[in-house]
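Amino Acid Chain and Its Fold in Token Form
===========================================
Structure side: the spatial fold of the chain, written down as a series of whole-number tokens.
Position: the record begins directly beneath this header, with no further notes in between.
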Amino acid sequence: MTERDTSRILAHPEAGEIRLEGVLHALSDPVRLSIVLDLAASAEDLACSYFVLPVTKSTTTHHFRVLRESGVVRQTYRGTTKLNALRRDELEELFPGLLDSVLKAAAAEEARLGS
């Protein structure tokens, strides 16, 4: 790998380093939760550019960084595109039922509030 290639590798916590409070913090923000909902609904990894968010580009970058550093998503580069995937299996192993419960609660809230 060249020096340039290694700079494109993003730091992710190992499964054993993922903390419940970090995951809950990441999921507590409505923008980040909307990203997770979209990722959960997709069978494919999604590029950052896929998401239409009501925030600036720098704030979008911040939200993805929080999700990655908390262990909720894994980001990889494919060419110049940064792809995002939920770390569903790892989260399920660490915190059984948590992600599904949050996704179900978010769907119920959306139905209730119509947002």
In short: The first helix runs from residue 3 to 6. The radius of gyration is 14 Å. The domain at 3-104 is CATH 1.10.10.10 (Arc Repressor Mutant, subunit A). The first strand starts at residue 46 and ends at 47.
